[in-house]
């Protein structure tokens, strides 16, 4: 069997793996220890990202006629590819984070949603939050005013009796002078006839 025939199934497999991918990242993995390589593969797998090591010639053949053909110029030296089917920046984020502790790992380039990016471009994309993080932040910003309103209403409800007591106390204070004046007025009315009677007695005594 010819070598081309032996390679074709692998080429077809690569082509199938990158088909409809949200992103494909080329990686230089030289210098990674066995433990680091094992950890990297596990981390990517847990995130649903395909990570494989292929020969550059086979990847070039698989990329022919696709948007991933723009990666051909970066296919030099040992290369691995990280393929994400859903989250376009997931592979870049994980690889960039992993490279902080495993400095031998490098991102060569990548294709994200049809656009080719070099190493620097991939590093910038790695700083973009995931869709879940963005949705979480958006939800948090939307809930914040509602949460604050609910907190204020709850405080008002808890302080209800005290709040109602203030106007009641003010009304009582305002009404107190009028209520106190009533007995005084009644006393004045009651005392008036007595004073008049006294004057009459005096007049009668004088006349006598």
CATH class of the largest domain: Alpha Beta
Strand content: 5-15%
CATH architect. name of the largest domain: 2-Layer Sandwich
The topology string of helices and strands comes to HEHEHEHEEHHH
| Biggest sheet strand line-up | 2-3-1-4-5
Could you tell me the mean pLDDT? 77
Largest sheet: 5 strands, antiparallel
**What global shape is seen?**
elongated
Q: What is the terminal separation in angstroms? A: 162 Å
In short:
This protein has 208 residues and is of the alpha+beta class. The protein is built from seven helices and five strands. Strand 4 (106-112) and strand 5 form a beta hairpin.
Task: Give the topology.
Elements: H1 3-18, E1 23-28, H2 34-46, E2 50-54, H3 56-63, E3 79-84, H4 90-99, E4 106-112, E5 115-118, H5 119-126, H6 131-158, H7 160-207
Antiparallel strand pairs: 1-3, 1-4, 2-3, 4-5
Keywords: Ribonucleoprotein, Ribosomal protein, RNA-binding, rRNA-binding
Region (Disordered): 167-208
Function: Forms part of the ribosomal stalk, playing a central role in the interaction of the ribosome with GTP-bound translation factors.
